[in-house]
Amino acid sequence: MRFWIKSIISVCFLLNFIVPLNLTLHDYDNPSASHILDADIQEDLLIISGMVGGIEFYDISNPEILNHLTSFNLSSGGGGGGGGGGGAKPNCIKAFGDYAYVTTKNGVAILNISNPSNPQSLGYISGTSNMILENLDIYNNILAIAAHEDGVLFYDISNPSNPQSITTIPTENSWTVYMENSTIFIGDESSLVMYSINELTNEFYYILTLDMPNSIKDIIGDNYGLLYVALGTDGVMALNLGTNFSPSIIDTYNTSALANRLAILGSKVAVSDWDDIEILEINNGIFEKVGYKNTTRRTMAIATKENYIYSAEWASVQIFEFGEVLGSDIDLSTYELNYPFVENGDSYTLSLDVTNNGNSTFILNEAYVTNSEFSATQLSNLNPGETQTIEINYTADAVNASGSYRIYSNDPDEPEILCETNGNIIGANIGDQAPDFNLNIVANGSGNFQLSDYLGEVVVLAFFAPN
What we know:
The protein is mainly beta. The chain folds into 2 domains: 310 residues, YVTN repeat-like/Quinoprotein amine dehydrogenase (Methylamine Dehydrogenase, Chain H), CATH 2.130.10; 94 residues, Immunoglobulin-like. Helix content is 0%, strand content 51%. It has no helices and 38 strands. A hairpin with a 4-residue loop joins β17 and β18. The two termini are 37 Å apart.
């Protein structure tokens, strides 16, 4: 069976009240790992995987504190023991008891994490070294790994240190896999493919395929019979699977940027949305945004514990708590203003939105720019839910005019908040003339690409580094 699910546009009327959209910031860490792509929680252990710098381990027995235990580098060869020279480029991670499985450019690595302060590498799963590996999930003693064009790989991990291959489900381009109650959900490009598994015989049975409006980035279910699907620029879709596998769409919420990874937060779903975290909840069949925080950095993945959200960002980790906040809570529309090239003596203005997403009045202590080549309009006190646009003008006088716009206020968890301002930086600036170049076309065509052949046209170039 194959179904087409169309997006539903829900129209909500704002009543005369304000729903605060704040999350409380508790802790922040800038670990040695960067290009961070995933996060997983095993009881009181938070594991963060970064393609550069390795894997970070944190004790979160106090959920408001990032107690860093160790940084761990996988060796390229995948031999036993910890440490190594790195180079494995960890991608996604899933913990299971005293073990963790990591997708890397060298295959699926197996870690013994019984002592998280001193994790040990047990090598790589045989036969996975020549694949592009993505998200993975564990259900009972079954490990499932999304391997793009190589399908979804299934292993018996009843002996966790020695996984045994069960089968492979073929796919066109699987990015993610999720398992729950003997049901397998596969994100194969824009198709949500469902299988069931007989846990006694490890036999798999195809159920149906649902066509989604965009490529599937992540899938997760809650304890209330709902399934959530992250659809990139199309936001998040909620499905009611019903009985006898007759799924129906509940609602779709178009997040502000790129819905990438999901985590359950009680009756809510937390979304890593590239430049922010959004907390969504279904009320009377309609998605509502009940929590929001611009994290200031690229939020690639998230993990949750109780009411705490652990934000895995490109080069940092933050802890937020969802719940009522009585004070003010300031969010900026951006935390970095990059100006196009400006001739000396000329000016250019960019705007910054300052929003109070808290429950009480934002009271400004002071706000100023740190570089005299920038000037800003006056920021005022803000009522709950109120936004003010600040115009920040750059008058060029020299190269590399970097600085910041700083705000000091009564925001209890962020009394100081800043937006970087960068003008005429040394290097490429927005609006600079691009140098002409000629490159071989390696995909979606043949021959060479000469930039000057496309004068007057909009050219979008996507670059992907090899594994």
